[in-house]
């Protein structure tokens, strides 16, 4: 392993990996709750900024204090020596303040150096050359007592850094490299009473050369390539014996769930030059335990408490953790301390959950996850952090709440492994996570011939092993973590796999390890049981029902129909009028807000389908409204197909990850919710498909299916299917009563629509209604269909889509008469939360329904109030029908304004009514 640096003892992640990084800390960014950065100074211009205050570090044994912020400056603009820069009292005038977790560019954006990078092509105007040299990150901290031992504890360095304390280098960049490696540097001999200085000389990042983070084709990459310190830098204080690697290994009795064995482990490390005897003890789940440990100078021993010697660690009737929708999310706490001569030397704490995860391959070779003994259909989305890796707890929690609202149970993190708080929140929200390494850059440089990553050196192998060890120790206690994907597009070779698996075993990794997100194999783990067959660009809704390519069979780790055009509100925030004009007029135009990829740079495939199915757009507004119908029907079909096929005996669907759940910037593709948390047709299509009890239509065989995602069976249901022409003329109606559907994702088929219906127009509507035994409507679903189906050219399939040779004719929707929908709304507020109740009523006198009626909560200026969670939205009403919807949101997000609701739809004139 790496040599010990002068004047500092370094504990590498391969040997000692730390647990939680500390308390909840927000960065300099506040999501969308602060105005965009104004036009500021040119890069390099001195700015008039407040100094970064020193962090006060207590002497309390076991304390871990995050540095509260840094001052940063390019080395090209700092002529002083490293000794001077890293010494207390250095005058960092003209330096830029940065948050405690910050990339270089994130800090400059917060300081107003550049205009809003999410608008238009502002990001393109930032010169990458400014970030091709190292940058200094400098912080002061103060201590009053030099008696305790002191260490720096950190990870999240992108890409590498020389580390200095009080004028002395304590670790070179050759050791502090890799975004995920954990580092602990003993700086006790350097710390002095009063002010102390820590300085990182951070090296530039290149995802093709370094085991860090990249973006590939997700978005326009940040010009600084995320160089910086993106996780907390902690100052730890303690006595002669340190506690590290504290965790609990759980073993749940499955399927009874009647008992759970807990084994507590920690490493006790003597940091002195003399022998020490320590008492290590703690508690978990109401059970206390204690033992005495004798340690030679600088010796480390693993301390273990198991049910064999502590009977109370065998729990009866344990509180079991479940994903949202399957049960509760109870958590346990582990508290440990090490005492020497009656004085506390160190403490450790961990929050964990009890659950069991298995993921065998089924008879078709597909990965089938089980949690606590029950089959799990993974319904998820790809997670994206903010493009500049700015951490904002509230913004993240808002997105997690959206995921739950959509009925998703899993979020896949391909690289970009978020800070600890993310997984804490996922634990509490009941959202499973699928973390794993990135595709196509350095992480797969050794094994992916089509990627851009460089081959690995011996040093890269060491960094990869240390990264795996650190992330395994960090994530293993989170019940939300479902697995770890040690490969994405490619599986690791034997050497890389062995390094990863050795690190995972050493960390007591508790859940399955999957070799790749694609259909690939690794020497020890064997087949992945996953598929990555696309699509990533537009395909018709019927595509998802075919049990081939990306269709609903097996586990598809990343897939969607590509573009997801945001609402008009978002589009007008992110693009100029000229760009918006090009958006709807020119399918061949390069769209900066889609992707830097040559494959996904335009909207040509999507726009051709939109015109072919719905008719050529006549304006921006028309383009956007057609896009919402297209996205609603497509995303709904994707999740519905996988939901229907999950209980099949032949090649069942076992999982699907919509690519993606959200975007890290203002995007035109791969998102169920946009950067501003507005909700478009894709969002509500997913929400509809993932209802707990749901009635749906099958594009492949015209069957009407009821899917029950609840645990208990559903009995006494009535299913009704009615066909209408666009003018509301009814052409078919059938009701089936006495429908019973088992729980846990089972489905029933109460009826199948006839292949032909007299009087049915080329474009027609299907209304499905499901009522319970009391006659209460529990699910309603409306489809717009055609007697001319979309025709796919399967032989022309590429890695990103399957061509369509004939489009379904939905242009008859344009003939639907405009119909009035009245709206009344009222709002009540309590404890910082407001709820607006909206009643919509179709007040027209004819037969034409109101299709896909959308309600937006807006302020006095007509701007959307976001985030907001609707009970339902984008609803369709027939004459005389009414529906009541509720919207829940933070009262503060009204910014003192009175709320209103804006109602619009496919054939409903827009109107806004007060909601106070």
Automatic annotation (TrEMBL):
Record bears the keyword Signal: yes
Exo-beta-D-glucosaminidase Ig-fold domain boundaries: 799-908
Superkingdom field: Bacteria
Biased segments, Basic and acidic residues type: 32-46
Beta-mannosidase-like galactose-binding domain sequence ranges: 93-203
Keyword annotations: Glycosidase, Hydrolase, Signal
Residue span(s) of domain Glycoside hydrolase family 2 immunoglobulin-like beta-sandwich: 242-355
Keyword Magnesium: no
Signal sequence annotation: 1-30
Region (Disordered): 32-68
InterPro entries per UniProt: Beta-gal/glucu_dom_sf, Beta-mannosidase-like_N2, EBDG/EBM, Galactose-bd-like_sf, GH, Ig-like_fold, Ig-like_GH2, Ig_GlcNase
Family classification: Belongs to the glycosyl hydrolase 2 family.
This protein's name: Exo-beta-D-glucosaminidase
Organism: Streptomyces cinerochromogenes
Lineage of the organism: Bacteria, Bacillati, Actinomycetota, Actinomycetes, Kitasatosporales
